[in-house]
Amino acid sequence: MAHQVSPPFARESLSREIVRLVGGQGGVHACMSGLRMAVPLMALQLGHGAAAVGLLLALFGAAQLAISIPAGRMADRHGLKRPMHISMVAAFAGAAVAAAWPTYPGLCATALLEGGAVALAVIALQRHAGQIAHGADELRRVFSWLSFTPAAANFLGPFAAGLVIDALGYRAAFLLLGVGPVVSWAFLRGATALPASAGPSRSGAGGEGLWRDPAVRSVLLMNGFVSATWDIHGVMVPLLGHARGLNASAIGSILASFAIAAAAVRLLVPWLGRHFREWVLMASALTAACVLLAVYPLMRTALAMGACSMLMGMTIGGVQPMVMSLLHQITPPHRHGQVIALRMMMINASSISMPLMAGAAGGIVGAAGVFWIMAASLLVGVRVAFDLRRMPPP
């Protein structure tokens, strides 16, 4: 197990630091999520078609994918403050470019700036969170809150942007979203600056050396299965609901029930972690998700699909903070940023590839077939979870 090298925080100090990190992440993430909703709508208003909108959305993820490893190395080398300052400037600049230059090239620049800003922020904040927490209980507590924050920001950013767009127009919404990075700066001003971790910051070739570690590889594969399940659910539920004759509001409610349950269960992770080993919780989550994916296509009503969706959110929503806790326990402190970056790359690769694969497979085997294929693949994920039994308890 890798041990933390920073001095212990008192419980009150740790709570204050968590508040700072939550506020710091929330401001940047709300800015990005609001722009990710508003920028495509602006492009449609400018007369661009679906392909142009798809490219804009892809640029958000492509920027995160491209910058993850450099961001991880920067976080390992410089800690929290420098990556976060760059992230906040980039997020503010993205909103400002959209407001000052509301053309398609300007919107593309905004997408790239916001995607890169979020990658820098998430990696730096998650690395710092692992450094201030001592022991598995504190790790689960910190990461349960940090994983809850994007869910809240994903609601707040688009909701606020939508209200302002309807009332005052797009430019006013872009300017409002630019306040988010300023809020992040206000929260993080008092964050603790920790010394750099001892150890070579460039050990291994990017994530290649980390991937060779069996424990790291197993945890990242677990994360990959959960990410793929999350993406398949988001893509295929609208298709399945359409095939069932459900209207847009019913389909939206089904997806909302998943998001609410996934966010809420993360706050229970510290309690669950005190009573069960991580591998038990992960194996149970993937087993339950496998069963739910298998029965999902058999549901015929919005209520039944909504129940499945909520249960699905409850089963896989808590895996992310457990993954982050495990990665910080098994990775040397001077490589925490890089392992977080490797995880982010896998998530973004899944977000780009799984919708394409699901769409292609759905055209051949139908929406129900895609659910059943994913359910069968999760059996491999359950086997990977059992491999984590060999990890010593924290």
UniProtKB/TrEMBL annotation:
Keyword Ribonucleoprotein: no
UniProt-listed Gene3D superfamilies: MFS general substrate transporter like domains (1.20.1250.20)
Keyword tags: Cell membrane, Membrane, Transmembrane, Transmembrane helix
Membrane topology: Multi-pass membrane protein
Subcellular location, record wording: Cell membrane
Pfam (any one): MFS_1
Transmembrane segments: 50-72, 84-104, 142-164, 170-188, 220-240, 246-267, 279-298, 304-327, 364-386
Entry keyword annotation includes Endoplasmic reticulum: no
Major facilitator superfamily (MFS) profile domain residues: 1-393
UniProt-listed SUPFAM superfamilies: MFS general substrate transporter (SSF103473)
InterPro entries membership: MFS, MFS_dom, MFS_Efflux_Transporters, MFS_trans_sf
Principal subcellular localization: membrane
Name this protein carries in UniProt: Major facilitator superfamily (MFS) profile domain-containing protein
